[in-house]
């Protein structure tokens, strides 16, 4: 849906095929990182989404405890406190050196996010949405993509389009249709979950406020809205059969921890099981070049670190402006090639981080009770205190998992020189080439100039720096250099067509 929303805001018509008539009911991603928030700000979603999320005064604290059921340890065994979004804004304002984003992260359940996004998409006249329709297969040729879909009654429809973006999840039928493999790596970690509500919020906070709570009995509990909604995940021991016969009792046992089931009234909304698998498609673009993969269709991650939906949002933000440039006839073929080249390495990085977080942080956290002994961890003895210190060290070492900072149409040329001649030159040459460029001349802005370390900077539509002038200044930047820079960064000329030695820095 974000792809459809973004294309609509770029002025492109599209057809949205969604097999479900309703948005997700599953308690998936509830952590939106800095980079995604910057994207939302650019596309006009921040002011619409922030009021729906957890208020900015709430932080991102994590606790490790023996449970909420009256165990031996009255306070959390370990605690990680992080600044709230409101506090981050104050910190960043005092340290405005280019190292911080403008938008803090946000806590917003994907359940709420999708509902709002569907509402917005349905208002866009250029989005032709078909809810309850299923994608079956596609073929592509040099001119178009022909997709076969079925309506809710099973009737077949054929759709022709210039391009297709497959955002259809880990079991992507679009990916299968274009013959792209996505080998799966199983980490061997299986969990059961329950999504629930409770009005007895005071019982959930007997050990302080928290965003995530890990208990000695292998449960991870997530506070979804700081009002009444939570999700609990609990590890299933390898090789052990598991059947959640009583979801309510499952929740109470998980919350209670070593103190026995917590006496609390809960309403279980949804429950099930999931496996910690990883996968990355061999390519994010079809052999024919007209079909693209994004989100879980391109890469599947574990929830560890919160990269799932965030990486999908970033895929779409990268891809849509490039497709728009092609459809508007100012982008070149090499620009679409850059989608896989840019996004797949990011998926590989996120996959490594998710695996590292799963195997080196969360799995040891879940099994710490077995490693150190339950009685030792809760004992009011000197050795018990030593065991709890080991837990604190392990928890502290894993705090990085939620501290990975994610890190308007047309290009912008930012000129800090006193004359402002280079920005005007870029704007003129860009006009001749049919490339949208906005010149920003700010000769008195030394702070930004110091951060970017150059007198003139070319910024892509997605906010990335595509070019910086030479360190020694703009003396050698003439018409021919400007033309080659522009044609290179929009994919209309091979990267090797320009001698980059001591001249420019490219991120394309």
TrEMBL record:
Keywords: FAD, Flavoprotein, Oxidoreductase. Residues 2-352 form the FAD-binding domain. GO terms for molecular function: FAD binding; oxidoreductase activity, acting on paired donors, with incorporation or reduction of molecular oxygen, NAD(P)H as one donor, and incorporation of one atom of oxygen. InterPro entries: FAD-bd, FAD/NAD-bd_sf, RIFMO-like. It comes from the Eukaryota. Pfam families: FAD_binding_3. The keyword Magnesium does not apply. This is FAD-binding domain-containing protein. It comes from Hymenoscyphus fraxineus.
